[in-house]
Specification:
Distance between the termini: 28 Å
Helix content: 55-70%
Number of strands: 5
Number of helices: 8
Oligomer: single chain
Strand content: 5-15%
CATH architecture of the largest domain: Orthogonal Bundle
């Protein structure tokens, strides 16, 4: 799928039906930032939102995922179901990415602990001790931004007050206190802070 093409098509159809980004976001119960990301090709609408989005934009799911209007004689209901299946596979890929994040974090942490242990208890020159600690830190520091980006973009966080689900900013995820996939963040909808759990789907229970 060409996300940039799809994004341009969403923007085109939104304007055609007379909606602003904020109005479209409000009807879908998401942030206008999420709509902006769709329209600039930085992300795709969640599969659980696609039918409602298409209804608002007066298009089919097939047209949405193709990024253009399709003549009715070429429209195939089966292809629409296949495209929805493809989007669901992306959600499964997000789950795999989250598992990979855990594995990467564990490996980097163990590497850092091993380096710290060696530097602390093995009799070596001070210069080597510092070098070993730095070597243990490097993999962790290199992997950290990628792990945070995975946690930011894969799925949603749910506010415990208003139950709003949203994709936070990279900075919000980076700065938030966390325990596993639960982070203490401010909800963009109600403005309250809470321990918010990671949800893969917009409609996940």
């Amino acid at each position: 799928m060409d996300q940039v093409k799809i994004g341009r098509f969403i923007a085109e159809r939104r304007k055609a039906v007379g909606l602003t980004q904020a109005e479209l976001a409000e009807r879908l119960n998401i942030t206008d930032r999420a709509v902006s990301k769709w329209e600039t090709g930085r992300s795709m609408p969640d599969s659980s939102l696609m039918l409602e989005l298409c209804e608002l934009l007066e298009i089919t799911v097939t047209e949405l995922l193709c990024g253009e209007r399709i003549a009715m004689e070429n429209y195939n209901k089966e292809s629409e179901n296949n495209l929805l299946k493809m989007v669901k596979e992306k959600e499964a890929a997000d789950k795999r990415l989250l598992r990979m994040e855990i594995i990467t974090g564990v490996i980097c942490t163990l590497f850092l602990l091993a380096a710290t242990t060696v530097a602390s208890f093995v009799q070596i020159a001070e210069g080597w001790r510092v070098l070993i600690i730095v070597a243990g830190l490097v993999p962790f520091l290199v992997a950290l931004p990628f792990m945070i980006q995975i946690e930011q973009t894969a799925g949603y966080y749910e506010c415990q007050h208003c139950k709003h689900r949203y994709v936070p900013t990279f900075r919000s995820v980076f700065m938030a206190m966390h325990a596993g996939y639960t982070r203490y963040m401010k909800c963009p909808q109600c403005g309250k802070r809470s321990w918010q759990k990671k949800k893969i789907s917009k409609e996940e229970e």
